[in-house]
Structure to design on (341 residues):
């Protein structure tokens, strides 16, 4: 059997990072994860160990800390890196743009520099469908132009992709995965998302409302040009997002070229409206949800969902979970963290 890679996962205690560590360990990879734990908790790392029954290296390291990063690279021999570590709140990025540029661009610089010095060639980068803005055509494919980003968060992802395209000429091979709307939690109920404070994203707001932590969900707008007037998104189970990273590592390993930058949409290809999601949640959980229609949220795009042909063919990947399962898993996790099970 071919020897499996040793993969460095930055942001390995984060929402998508931790689910990806599980997929990597289950696929036989050696994993070292780092995380500042500024916006996550060590119990997620413990959860990953319980789910997989496997050990992996974990270090509390901030990717902006050059000497700590140097130490990580000097003491391990990595074959590939998956870079999740970044800030991800759209609202917060509008309030604190400099924080977002400094963290999201700065951590990438420190990482690329270390990869070059230690000759680690392969990188998977966490990008976002936000790079497209409101696309002219949906489903959107990877050839769509980048529109002006709606937020500094979105702009930071666009800039990172630009940097990576340039750095690919220096022998770093990159797959950029443009996530649509990751939701859900691990089916075991042992790990999931830990939003800080009031959630911005729809599904954590839905589950917290169902759990009684929030009084009422507001659906932001029902006057959009969609079937029921609410926004349309491509919701994808976090485990499906995670598994694509394993395929991306295999893909890079198979490439002969020393220079490569390839972006893939990571979505299901199914557009679901906010109101459809709310109804599906009520249907699959049997829990009633207190919601009202409110005004549009500034900065929201009306509709966006992926054309997933490239990722399905190029990475030989397919989503396994449907919307109902994703919502059941999100609810199971919410109940666990609220002590309702
Ligand atoms: N929504 C509500 N009520 C809420 C929260 C959200 O109606 O309380 C609606 C939003 O208006 C939007 C949809 O649910 O129409 C999805 O909103 P999310 O905040 O869950 O997700 P976004 O599509 O805005 O955000 C996603 C990713 C971000 C990424 C962003 C940029 O979660 O990380 O896309 O496109 F930056």
């Amino acid at each position: 059997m071919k020897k499996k890679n040793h993969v460095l996962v930055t942001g390995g205690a984060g929402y998508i990072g931790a689910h990806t560590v599980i997929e990597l360990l289950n696929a036989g990879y050696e994993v070292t994860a780092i995380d500042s734990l500024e916006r996550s908790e060590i119990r997620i790392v413990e959860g990953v160990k319980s789910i997989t029954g496997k050990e992996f290296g974990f270090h509390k390291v901030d990717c902006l800390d050059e000497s700590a990063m140097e130490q990580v690279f000097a003491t391990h021999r990595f074959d590939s890196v998956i870079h999740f570590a970044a800030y991800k709140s759209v609202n917060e990025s509008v309030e604190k743009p400099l924080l977002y540029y400094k963290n999201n661009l700065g951590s990438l610089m420190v990482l690329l520099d270390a990869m070059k010095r230690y000759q680690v060639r392969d990188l998977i980068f966490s990008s976002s469908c936000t790079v497209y803005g409101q696309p002219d055509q949906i489903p959107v494919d990877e050839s769509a132009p980048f529109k002006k980003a709606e937020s500094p968060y979105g702009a930071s992802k666009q800039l990172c992709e630009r940097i990576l395209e340039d750095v690919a000429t220096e022998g770093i091979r990159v797959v950029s995965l443009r996530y649509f709307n990751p939701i859900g939690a691990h089916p075991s109920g042992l790990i999931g998302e830990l939003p800080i404070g009031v959630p911005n994203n729809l599904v954590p707001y839905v589950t917290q409302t169902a759990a009684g932590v929030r009084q009422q969900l507001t659906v932001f707008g029902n006057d959009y040009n969609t079937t029921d007037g609410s926004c349309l998104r491509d919701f994808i189970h976090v485990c499906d997002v995670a598994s694509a990273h394993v395929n991306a590592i295999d893909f890079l390993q198979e490439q002969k070229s020393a220079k490569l930058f390839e972006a893939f949409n990571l979505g299901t290809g199914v557009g679901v409206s906010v109101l459809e999601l709310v109804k599906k949640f009520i249907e699959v959980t049997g829990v009633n949800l207190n919601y009202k229609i409110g005004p549009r949220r500034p900065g929201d795009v009306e509709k966006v969902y992926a054309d997933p042909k490239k990722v399905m063919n190029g990475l030989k990947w397919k989503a396994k979970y449907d919307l109902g399962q994703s919502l059941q898993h999100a609810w199971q996790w919410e109940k666990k963290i609220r002590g309702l099970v």
